[in-house]
């Protein structure tokens, strides 16, 4: 969105779908969306430039955002940073001066980990940051350069825990369920033995019961807080000070959600539905607000330790936040709650998808100087040194589906791409991070070319695209968290699961993928398929990936464990145990299993 972009361009009348067919959009829905965007007025878009490069828009005085005059702008980009341009006419514009390209990783490999599933023998029913440190160390020891993890965004502190890491309460703060209780500062000063016994007992079942985990971890955190809150270290005070108003409001929202037993803040008493209206509650419940801020510090300390333990941690950034989230509560003037983000039908999801995430108004985002986006990126890169942007199209356009409507009835809304990409480049450059954009599904023309221009890696999955067609500038994997595993594909159990729950799919195409995988592995599909055949297929699949051109190749811990079930079945709610299945054994044992060792050896050969 720049000075020449009009509303009809922001919400175009048609789009080209995954089958290269032009789809006309519903005119009534399109008109309604354009009205929503227009209600925000006509915010002035930022100036995007590069240090030392000419920019005709840089005419006027440059100021830092905290009010210090830099000097006159002379059509040349200033050093990396954010500025305010005061134009001769008196107008003011945000200036984003960013490097022209992202940093690049070396050719290598890594593990893809659903952190909640990667339980160790010390876990309390769910994978935690201590387990992540274990995986990062083991990965580095085996020669891996990176570990991609599922999002560790915050969830609401309520009895009914959100299972999906892609529907967070906040993309700026951390998931408290991932705290390793034994490693909490001060934990050794209190007796947690009764809770630890119950927590570790949850590992006996493969199913992850987040509600039970939260009950136990909350009780443990409360005991430690009670024993240590009067003598917290200076590091805690620094963290809280740096978190500022964003942390205070998130902690306040957390205390409110806990008090009312639900994250659905639009159903709270009216005076608490805005941050301003809840100030009296913050004063009256200062200890509980401080508790949740402290818990975020604990999570931050542990995540930092995991990120420094071995291989580079690649943080995964969700496409949005839940409608009943702290982010929606804090930024509700930017959100349209009558629409949710999703995607239109494509060849892999014939019904399309709705993700239950409210839509963000691009005009409101510009008017805020991109504050929520900058905060999210900075948080993601606070300790991690690489990012994966889930559904990278969020930087270009998002598909708005009317609440309660069918995915086919949505409209595409375009976002200020150049500014969002510049913010990513700027923030990544400050910490030396590299960035991957998940660019599968319906991708608009020119997106991949722009990614290549700026040095953002793409993402490819071998069960969707033959590995010999992978370009070099991508992160390559066998599949994603939404797709079949090697075991599920080879045995045909994934197809059986799809049929059993009544999910539409191109079964002829899926059977072709299965037969191709079997042929590559030398497996006879007319004979019984057991563990040996699955391991044979896993090794064959990752041998192919090791030899492909992709800059970075990932092996899934699910494949290394011979897991048949998908982590998530898109388009389902209760039909599938989405995000609730752990790995079949403690992660330290799985990584030492012959199959995992063999996969690591195969992939490590690509460093030679």
Automatic annotation (TrEMBL):
Keywords: Carbohydrate metabolism, Glycosyltransferase, Transferase. Its EC number is 2.4.1.25. Belongs to the disproportionating enzyme family. Pfam families: Glyco_hydro_77. This is 4-alpha-glucanotransferase. The keyword Transferase applies. The lineage of its organism: Bacteria, Bacillati, Actinomycetota, Actinomycetes, Micrococcales. One of its GO terms (biological process) is carbohydrate metabolic process.
């Amino acid at each position: 969105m720049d000075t020449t972009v009009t509303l009809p361009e922001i919400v175009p009348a048609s789009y080209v779908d995954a089958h290269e067919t032009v789809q006309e959009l519903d005119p009534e829905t399109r008109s309604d969306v354009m009205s929503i965007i227009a209600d925000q007025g006509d915010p002035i878009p930022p100036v995007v430039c590069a240090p030392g490069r000419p920019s005709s828009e840089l005419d006027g005085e440059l100021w830092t955002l905290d009010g210090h005059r830099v000097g006159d702008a002379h059509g040349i980009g200033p050093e990396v940073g954010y500025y305010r341009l005061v134009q001769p006419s008196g107008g003011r514009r945000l200036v984003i001066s960013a490097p022209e390209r992202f940093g690049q990783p070396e050719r290598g490999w890594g593990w893809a980990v659903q952190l909640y599933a990667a339980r160790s023998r010390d876990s309390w029913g769910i994978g935690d940051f201590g387990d992540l440190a274990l995986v990062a160390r083991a990965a580095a020891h085996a020669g891996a350069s990176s570990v991609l993890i599922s999002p560790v965004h915050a969830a609401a502190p309520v009895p009914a825990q959100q299972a999906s890491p892609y529907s967070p309460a906040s993309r700026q703060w951390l998931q408290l369920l991932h705290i390793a209780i034994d490693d909490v500062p001060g934990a050794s000063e209190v007796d947690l033995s009764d809770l630890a016994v119950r927590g570790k007992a949850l590992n006996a079942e493969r199913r992850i019961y987040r509600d039970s985990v939260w009950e136990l971890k909350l009780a443990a955190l409360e005991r430690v807080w009670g024993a240590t809150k009067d003598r917290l270290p200076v590091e805690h005070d620094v963290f809280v000070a740096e978190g500022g108003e964003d942390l205070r409001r998130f902690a306040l929202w957390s205390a409110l959600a806990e008090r009312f037993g639900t994250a659905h803040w639009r159903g709270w008493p009216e005076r608490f539905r805005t941050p301003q209206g809840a100030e009296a509650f913050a004063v009256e419940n200062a200890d509980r607000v401080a508790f949740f801020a402290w818990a975020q510090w604990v999570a931050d300390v542990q995540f930092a330790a995991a990120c420094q333990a071995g291989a580079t941690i690649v943080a995964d950034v969700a496409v949005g936040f839940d409608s009943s989230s702290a982010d929606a509560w804090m930024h509700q003037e930017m959100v349209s709650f009558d629409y949710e983000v999703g995607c239109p039908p494509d060849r892999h999801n014939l019904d399309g998808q709705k993700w239950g995430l409210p839509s963000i108004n691009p005009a409101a985002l510009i008017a805020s100087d991109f504050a929520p986006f900058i905060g999210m990126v900075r948080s993601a890169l606070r300790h991690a040194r690489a990012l994966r942007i889930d559904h990278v199209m969020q930087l270009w356009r998002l598909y708005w589906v009317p609440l309660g409507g069918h995915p086919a009835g949505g409209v595409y809304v375009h976002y200020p791409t150049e500014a969002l990409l510049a913010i990513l480049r700027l923030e990544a450059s400050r910490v030396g991070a590299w960035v991957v954009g998940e660019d599968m599904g319906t991708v608009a023309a020119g997106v991949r070319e722009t990614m290549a221009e700026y040095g953002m890696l793409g993402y490819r999955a071998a069960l969707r695209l033959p590995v010999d067609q992978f370009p070099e500038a991508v992160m390559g994997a066998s599949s994603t968290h939404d797709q079949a595993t090697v075991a599920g594909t080879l045995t045909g159990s994934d197809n059986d699961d799809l049929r059993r729950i009544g999910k539409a799919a191109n079964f002829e195409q899926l059977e072709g993928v299965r037969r191709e995988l079997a042929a590559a592995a030398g497996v006879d599909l007319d004979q019984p398929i057991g563990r040996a055949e699955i391991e044979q297929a896993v090794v064959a699949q990752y041998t192919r990936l090791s030899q492909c051109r992709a800059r970075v190749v990932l092996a899934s811990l699910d494949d290394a464990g011979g897991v048949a079930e998908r982590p998530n079945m898109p388009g389902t709610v209760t039909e599938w145990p989405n995000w609730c299945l752990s790995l079949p054994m403690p992660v330290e044992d799985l990584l030492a299993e012959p199959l995992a060792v063999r996969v690591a050896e195969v992939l490590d050969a690509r460093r030679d």
